[in-house]
Structure formats: structure tokens, C-alpha cells
Structure to design on (105 residues):
């Protein structure tokens, strides 16, 4: 499968780690969680050949499938500098915004 990174964008410390922990038992290759820019809307970006991985991730994390979107072709995802290396090597990027509370899910 592809490599997946979970980005924290809700301002809730640890949510991305929690999301990463939920994916690992399902056999996903997860990079260490990273920070995203704070935003309300969650989304899942994927490279075209990893759409099934991305769909499985939305099911596990209970993210609405309509938030699935393929990678921007320019590769220009807006993330903090410290997250760029992980984001650029990931095949699926999960961004947890403040609309998504995964604690206790």
C-alpha cells in the first residue's frame, strides 16, 4: 500500500497521532504525524493510484467520502515547512480540520 501521513489542522494537540494510531492496525504504512495549517475543513488527498487506500482511510477515520480529492498537480499543498518532507513523500495525506473530532471515536 501507499504511505500515509496524517496532518493536524484542528489545533487539538495529538489528534493527528490519534488518527495515525487508528490506521496502523489496518496495515497502512504511516509516516509520523505532522502539522498542517489550521483549518476547519478536513480532507484526504491521494495520488491517483492510491484511491482505494484513501477510501479505506476515510472509512476508518469516519471522514466523509466527499472530502476525498486527488493531489493538486502542482504539488503545492500549503503546509508548515517542518511538514514538507513528509507530505512530499506521502501517497495519501489526511488533513484533520476542526470539523473532525476523532477522540473517543
Amino acid at each position: 500500500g501507499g504511505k500515509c501521513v496524517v496532518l493536524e489542522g484542528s489545533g487539538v494537540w495529538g489528534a493527528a497521532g490519534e488518527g495515525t494510531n487508528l490506521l496502523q492496525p489496518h496495515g497502512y504504512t504511516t509516516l509520523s504525524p505532522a502539522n498542517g495549517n489550521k483549518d476547519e475543513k478536513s480532507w484526504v488527498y491521494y495520488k491517483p493510484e492510491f484511491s482505494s487506500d484513501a477510501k479505506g482511510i476515510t472509512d476508518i477515520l469516519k471522514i466523509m467520502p466527499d472530502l476525498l480529492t486527488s493531489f493538486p498537480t502542482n504539488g503545492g499543498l500549503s503546509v508548515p515547512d517542518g511538514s514538507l518532507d513528509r507530505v512530499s513523500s506521502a501517497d495519501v495525506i489526511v488533513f484533520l480540520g476542526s470539523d473532525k473530532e476523532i477522540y473517543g471515536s
Observations:
- Helices lie at 15-23, 51-61, 84-89.
- Residues 65 and 86 are 23 Å apart (CA to CA).
- The mean pLDDT is 85.
- The longest helix spans residues 51-61.
